Amino acid sequence: MAPLASQTVDLREPAGWRRTKNQIMTVLMWGAFVIVLIPLGFVIYTVIEKGAKAISWQFLTNGTVPPNVMPLGFGGMGAAVIGTLEITGFAALIAIPLGVLGAVYISEYGGRNWLAKLIAFMADVMTGVPSIVMGLFIYTLWVLHFGYSGMAGSFALACLMLPVVIRSSYEMLRLVPNTLREGSYALGATKARVTVTVVLPAALGGIVSGALLAVARAAGETAPLLFCILTVESTNTNLFSGPNTALSTQIFANAQSPYVGAQARAWGAALTLIAITFILMIVARIVTARFTRYAR
Amino acid sequence: MSTATEADPAIPAGSAGALAHRRPLGDRGFQIMALVAGLLVLIILILIAVTTAQQSTTWFTTAGFKGIFSTVWNPEANQFGAMAFVYGTVIASVIAIIIAFPVSIGIALLLNEVVPRRWARPIIYVIDLLAVVPSVVWGLWGIIVLVPKLQTLYTHIASGVKGIPVLDSLFGGPDVSGASFFTAGLILAIMITPIITSLSREVIATVPAIDKEGAYALGATRWEMIRGAVWPHSQGGVVGAALVGLGRAMGETIAAALVIGASAEVTPHLFYTGYAIPAVIALQFGEASGGEFRAALIGLGLLLFVITIIVNLVARWIVERSARRARGA
Q1: Which of B47, B126, B278 sits opposite A132 (nearest CB)?
Q2: pLDDT by residue (tens digit) across A136-166?
Q3: Global pTM exceeds 0.90
Q4: Using CB atoms within 10 A of its CB, is residue B244 exposed (0-12), middle (13-18) or buried (19+)?
Q5: ipTM of the modeled complex
């Protein structure tokens, strides 16, 4: 009996250390998650706390002022809210149809040919192109010839959104079962008709939510707008000509200011911008949850 | 459908074979539209290189090889050396990847191997929230809230490591500043964590269940299973994910521009103010009225484009290859 007991003790000794090591590693993995929570919670708390003080109906509709010494009561972000909405909206109008069409090419027409593979691969690579390079690109291609306008900003944002929309739509189209396509071919439909009336509707939920996430990311982008819209203070409802303004570039300008009033306006604008992007993201989640037919 | 174009004696005349030759105009038009939209990706990438190269030729011709590869950036004297910015970009993004990589892998393993599926969803949402907070908001928070706090922390660390050989030159020095290479690295680390996490999560999810069950059957603990079954299988893809994150960190502009301190210095001191390529473009483009100044900034953009494209090509190739191997092809 005695040797057997000592043997079990011998066996348990390494098991104890192995178990401890396992527990340490599990704690470290949870720790990694907590480490990420800290800055996220901190930044959201700060934006809400400081932004709520600045925000009012007046703030959201008043004309914008330069980042200067004026206290918080003066000026607001009205022009910037309008600018952000129209610039991002037009960018979405360009990038979403093109992105979905590009995804249709890769998944429905490309099959296994080299061009479709190359486009899919380069779309992945394009998501890594820095946003500031997109800004410089539109500056050299458009602004140098046609001048600053909200539309130039939309072009830059559309360039950023395009590969994201292509990737997310492609993933969704791939999930549509082939039997659906075969069934409609059997009824004599052409490929375009099958794609538009059967495949795209089947993947619609996923495509819409992916596109909304891309729009949410684009709404917060600053760098591509810096050289395209020439951040001004007045409201410009004409998207196609004349300098414009946006929330993100206003935050950037005000953040560099040493004045308390300007910084307060930056926090107010930051809360507005985060609210816009979070609303888009939540809508995307709802769309995913309710309308996705084929999920991974 | 290519299979239908061959005439088959079994099919009655005038059926599928003939139809395939007479595709309606709308059908063909739709295919061409889709093709053009797809090609747009390649066209944009090529145009970026062409237009920025065109606009920056004066920089390359007047500054010459030696001018570009110098560390002197003095727009008043028409000296536009790029190396201080390249140095700052590399240092800040390497700091970011050193911090973000272990954290991201930890979260990816947590999501795939530790928590049950219905718990994983909310955690993924939270990580995605990090990616949705705009870069400029991180920058605003960084410069107004974080920088003053870090200033005191850095000063304490600097006085603590005074006189210790290597640590002193990395973390010491009399001119420590809250806005520095290290602060930029910290902010960038937060911003690239979501992309590295989601890419490595996808890679780790491809590990065959049978490998994991085999490890458990041999009596392995969860950590030993991860070391023995998950890690060897997903090593390559995870490195690729880290490279994608590195590319993001190099190109991230606004947050870095606000917290890096904006001084073109090459120094080993991580707590000193520095500069990065995207930051200098964002901050100085407005005042760059002169032809060569603007050409130099656009040239820096082209340089950044080339660097990030190379990093991303390598990264995506690695991810793709490991994904293909995982599928067993």
Answers
A1: B278
A2: 999 999 988 888 888 999 999 999 999 999 9
A3: no
A4: buried
A5: 0.88
